[in-house]
Amino acid sequence: MESENSTIKVEEPVQTITVSSRIPEFWQDVPRLCFIQAEAVLHPQRLTDEAKCHLIITKLGKDAITQVTDILESPPKTGKYEVLKNSACQVVVRNFIQGFGISVMQRPTRSPDLNMIERLLDHLKRNVQSHDSAPTTLQELKDAVIQEWDTISLKRKF
Fold first, then answer.
1. From the CB of residue 31, how many other CB atoms can be counted at a distance below 10 Å?
2. What is the signed CA dihedral for 100, 68, 33, 42, rounded to 10 degrees?
3. What CA–CA distance (Å, rounded) separates 9 from 33?
4. Which label site among 1, 49, 51, 118 has the fewest CB atoms less than 10 Å from its CB?
């Protein structure tokens, strides 16, 4: 009599299974460290962006996966792994901040128009470009950015 286990077919390549087993389960409290370790395992494999993303998804627990549902349901065309990594890390920071009773505005992911840093950098870029003479060396560019940075008021809203 043949056992039930002897008829199971393995459809995944053994290499993929081995790589997956070396990636830790998602560490919700220290996601950056989790991704650093995962990248150390994934780097020599030379996997595609999508393959890396799928391997990481298999390591996400229920709590983590529900936090990045928007990314999983409508992934970007390129850079899926980086978007998933950044989103997972942002969730931890947001949860940490909310733990102190600080409310966080819900904004759509990947929206540079609503990102204050993007708006600040755009402001700096426009002001540097508005100078009479464009910087021609790296040092001139640094000086121009520092000059514009010093003119920004902390009261200005971006």
1. 20
2. 180
3. 35
4. 1
Tokens of 118: 């993007």
Tokens 């920071």 belong to residue: 93
Closest to 34 measured CA to CA, from 43, 42, 24, 20: 24
Place of tokens 């996966």: 65
Instruction: Render pLDDT for 1-58 as a digit per residue (tens, 0 to 9).
Output: 444 444 444 444 545 556 666 787 888 888 888 888 888 888 888 888 888 888 889 8
- pLDDT per position as a tens digit, 48-106: 888 888 888 988 888 888 888 888 888 888 899 999 988 888 887 777 777 788 777 76
Fill in the DSSP letter of residue 77.
S
Secondary structure of 114-126 in HEC code, one letter for each residue: HCHHHHHHHHHHH
Residues 6+ apart with CB under 8 A from 98: 104
- CB 34, CB 27: distance < 8 Å: yes
Amino acid letter, 156 = R
Residues in the chain, how many? 158
